[in-house]
Design a protein that fits this description.
Shape: globular
CATH topology of the largest domain: Rossmann fold
Number of domains: 2
CATH superfamily of the largest domain: Glycogen Phosphorylase B
Mean pLDDT: 94
Strand order of the largest sheet: 3-2-1-4-5-6
CATH class of the largest domain: Alpha Beta
C-alpha cells in the first residue's frame, strides 16, 4: 500500500508536544514502513516520521500537490480540520475522529458520506455519541506496550498531558494540596491565548516546592515518570474519546484515578486498575486507596488490551476494506448506514 497520512496542521508529529492524534499517526507511519508499505506524511515543520515527510504549515496546498505528484491507495486524515483540505481525487479517503463530535463542524458526517470519505472512531463511547448515524467502525487506540515496564513506585502523584482548561490540571493541583502530597505536572502549554491564560491564572500561582511543573517531556522521561508515580491523575473535564496516557500508566503498572468522562471508564477498570470518580473530593479519597491496588494487575490488563500491534492490525484491515470497497462500488464501507 501507498498511504498518505495528513496530520493536524498545528502540532509536529513525533515530538514531546505531540498529542494523542499525532502519536497514533506516528505509530501507523512506523508500522507501514516496517511492513514494507510506503508511508507519506503531511505534517507541521519539525515533525519526525519513518516514511517520507512533507512539511506544511497549512495543508490545503500540500495535499493537492502530493495528490498531483503521485498515486496513493488511501488518504488518511487525522486532524479535526480535515474537511478544509479534502482534495478532489478518486483516491479512497479515511478520517479518524480523534476528538469528540462537538469539535467537528455540525454537518461533517453528512458531508463525508456525500464525498465518500470513510470515518472511524477510537472508542465505543465515541461511536455511541455519533449524531445521526450508527455503526461507525471502531479501531481502539493502542500503545507500544513493550516500551513500558514497571518500576518501584515513588511518593508523588503525576498529571501528564497538555495544560489547558479541558484537561483540568488545576483539579490535580487541588487534590495534591488537600492531601499535602507531591505532584509532578508534565506537559506542554501550547501557544493558544486561552491555554497560556489558564496556565498563568490557574496553574503557575499554585506551584511550590511540592507541586512542580516540568514542561513537555521526552519519551524516556515520560516512561520514568509514569512508572515511578504512586498513581496518575486524569482530571479531564472533556468527553475523552480515548486516553493514551492512561494506557501508558497502566502499562507501567501504575493505577489511574480519572474523572468519569467519555471513554475513560472503558480504559480504567474501577476498583481494579484505578478508580473512576465524579468530583475533586472523590479523587482525593481515591488517591488514598490507590496504593492498595495491584500494579501487576494494571500491567497485565494493559498487555491484554492496549498493545499497539492490535491497533495496527485493525487499521490495516480497515484500509484494505475501504480500498476494496471503493474500487468495487465507489462507496465508503459505512455509506449505506
Amino acid at each position: 500500500m501507498r498511504v498518505l497520512s495528513v496530520a493536524f496542521h498545528g502540532i509536529p508529529v513525533g515530538t514531546p508536544s505531540a498529542g494523542g492524534a499525532e502519536q497514533i499517526l506516528a505509530m501507523l507511519d512506523t508500522a507501514l514502513a516496517e511492513h514494507g508499505h510506503q508511508s507519506v506524511v503531511i505534517a507541521a515543520p519539525g515533525s519526525r516520521i519513518s516514511g517520507e515527510l512533507i512539511e506544511s504549515s497549512w495543508h490545503g496546498a500540500a495535499v493537492d500537490a502530493a495528490c498531483g505528484a503521485g498515486s496513493f491507495d488511501l488518504i488518511h486524515f487525522h486532524g479535526f480540520d480535515f474537511m478544509q483540505y479534502v482534495p478532489q481525487t478518486g483516491v479512497p479517503m479515511l478520517a479518524t475522529l480523534h476528538l469528540p463530535f462537538s469539535y467537528y463542524p455540525e454537518n461533517m458526517i453528512g458531508n463525508c458520506l456525500l464525498r465518500g470519505i470513510a470515518l472511524n472512531c477510537v472508542s465505543r463511547n465515541q461511536a455511541g455519541s455519533a449524531p445521526g448515524i450508527c455503526g461507525l467502525p471502531i479501531v481502539p487506540n493502542g500503545i507500544p506496550i513493550d516500551f513500558y515496564a514497571p518500576e518501584d513506585p515513588g511518593d508523588y502523584l503525576l498529571c501528564l498531558g497538555r495544560i489547558c482548561p479541558a484537561k483540568g490540571t488545576h483539579a490535580a493541583l487541588e487534590v495534591a494540596r488537600r492531601l499535602d502530597m507531591r505532584l509532578i505536572i508534565a506537559g506542554p502549554v501550547h501557544p493558544y491565548p486561552s491555554h497560556r491564560h489558564y496556565f498563568a491564572q490557574c496553574i503557575e500561582p499554585w506551584l511550590d516546592d511540592k507541586r512542580t511543573w516540568v514542561g513537555a517531556v521526552g519519551i524516556e522521561q515520560k516512561r520514568t515518570l509514569l512508572a515511578r508515580a504512586r498513581c496518575v491523575l486524569v482530571p479531564s473535564f472533556a468527553a475523552e474519546t480515548s486516553s493514551l496516557v492512561t494506557m501508558e500508566a497502566l502499562a507501567c503498572g501504575t493505577p489511574v484515578v480519572a474523572f468519569r468522562q467519555g471513554a475513560l471508564p472503558e480504559i480504567v477498570e474501577d476498583g481494579e486498575t484505578g478508580f473512576i470518580v465524579d468530583s475533586i473530593d472523590d479523587m482525593a479519597c481515591a488517591v488514598a486507596r490507590a496504593g492498595a491496588l495491584s500494579r501487576t494487575r494494571c500491567r497485565e490488563q494493559a498487555i491484554a488490551r492496549f498493545d499497539s500491534r492490535r491497533m495496527v492490525d485493525g487499521y490495516f484491515a480497515l484500509y484494505r476494506q475501504i480500498i476494496t470497497r471503493h474500487f468495487s462500488t465507489g462507496r465508503a464501507p459505512h455509506e449505506s448506514l
